[in-house]
Amino acid sequence: MLKTLYRAVGKKELDLILNNRWLTFPDRFSHQTVFNPTPNFAHAAAIAKQFLTQDANADYMGFVTSFQVYSEYLKKFADQNGAYPSEIKVPASESYEFNLNIHGGIQIVSAYCGAGMDYSHLLENPYLPCYC
């Protein structure tokens, strides 16, 4: 069985996902100790909309990605009742194993743009649809 998860990412992380042919998430940046996907679309959308669109490091763009992970692998992140927290905290050291358990690739399901966004780079990347 598969479980659908979501992750809010900025433009720089989205470019790294593109470089991985939409199959895996990039290794964590040095300041990131955990990888935080969520089973809740609304939670990921709120992060993309409220935080990433205000962040120059995200190029004022927030994207919600969707992907499926093997349920058996995810069991170790569930509570005693089998429920998942609002954010699943995957240690950065386990990102390789997490990526091995993604089935079918990663897709963009929503995008948000902030007031500080520079649209010119969208013309340079034909693989990045213009959502904003």
Structure description:
This protein is of the alpha+beta class. The protein has one domain: ADP-ribosylation fold, CATH 3.20.170. Helix content is 22%, strand content 26%. It contains 4 helices and 5 strands, in the order βαβαβαβαβ. The strands form 2 sheets. The protein has a 3-stranded antiparallel β-sheet with strand order 1-3-5. It has a two-stranded antiparallel sheet with strand order 2-4. The longest helix is centred in the middle third of the chain and has 10 residues, at 41-50. The mean pLDDT is 87.
Features:
single chain, 132 residues, alpha+beta, ADP-ribosylation fold, 3-stranded antiparallel sheet, two-stranded antiparallel ribbon, 5 strands, globular
> Would you give the CATH topology?
ADP-ribosylation fold
**Percentage of residues in DSSP E strands:** 25-35%
Strand order of the largest sheet: 1-3-5
User: End-to-end span in angstroms?
Assistant: 34 Å
User: What is the 3D shape?
Assistant: globular
